[in-house]
Amino acid sequence: MTPPLTYLQFHLVFTIPPIVVLGWLAVQRDRARWDRTTLSGLAIIVFLAVAYTTPWTNALIPEGVWWYGDGAVLATIWHTPVEEYLFFVLQTTLTAFWLFQFLTVSDTSLRLPTSHRLAGILAGLAVCALGWTLLETTATSYLGAILFWAGPILAIQWGFGLTYLLEKRRQVLLAVGVPTLYLWVADWVAISLGIWVISDAHTIGIGLAGLPLEEALFFLVTNVFVVQGLVLYAWVLDRRADLVSLPRVRRLASQVLSRSADS
């Protein structure tokens, strides 16, 4: 059955308009963060999102974890529709533009306790291990695939900056929560219209108002990747600039004092 909306039309209705609005607001609002740091961070996160998600989707689609309605996609590259690759870019941009509306950086040192870094790494690896165990049965395979795939990224991000992310938890929660809720609704609409279909055999049968738990989890963890990555990136660049400039300030101050003493 042909769905009433194609996948490309879905983007024209659900993903591109909010990106345009949020991008315009970020440019117009003085309180929004729109500079070389945020835009370079977005470019890096987009590249990583496409590179990391591409093999994952191309492994799951042939297994029948999900598929697309007749005539819903223009073409496929490998096993994945071109519109799905576009989704990797558009979702990342949507979430990033929302974060840019209120992104701030705290004056927190990059030198975090080793125990905090270790705890972050272990937490991410625990997610990965849980996913691995869930891959063993068909009904939990999609859930397991999400957790196994998400674990390494979480281990890297939490291992590097868990302490800082906890410090900025309100900002992170707001940046993750709003676009996740929006994409849950958009995903539910797409599934209801038959643009894509989630396999009953590969899911546990628990949903949120008709949205499969696995789909809800996917959009949650991917937005966590984006937000945490950008928050940490801005933190590192801001702190690196401080660390580089501080010795220069000290040298300039010493020179001024020396000249004053000589005179």
Distance between the termini: 88 Å
According to DSSP, the number of beta strands is 6
Radius of gyration: 22 Å
Percent of residues in helices: over 70%
Structural account:
- Keywords: Carotenoid biosynthesis, Isomerase, Membrane, Transmembrane, Transmembrane helix.
- One of its GO terms (biological process) is carotenoid biosynthetic process.
- This is Lycopene cyclase domain protein.
- This protein is mainly alpha-helical and 263 residues long.
- It has one domain (7-257).
- It has 7 helices and 6 strands; from the N terminus they run H-H-E-E-E-H-H-H-H-E-E-E-H.
- It has helices at 7-28, 36-60, 82-100, 114-134, 141-167, 169-193, 213-262; strands spanning 66-68, 76-77, 80-81, 196-198, 207-208, 211-212.
- It has a two-stranded antiparallel ribbon. Strands 2-3 form a two-stranded antiparallel sheet. The protein has a two-stranded antiparallel sheet with strand order 5-6.
- Strand 5 (207-208) and strand 6 form a beta hairpin.
- The chain starts with 6 loop residues before the first helix and ends with a helix.
Key structural traits:
263 residues; mainly alpha; two-stranded antiparallel ribbon; 6 strands; 72% helix; membrane; carotenoid biosynthesis; lycopene beta cyclase activity; Lycopene_cyclase_dom; transmembrane
Short description:
The chain has one domain (7-257).
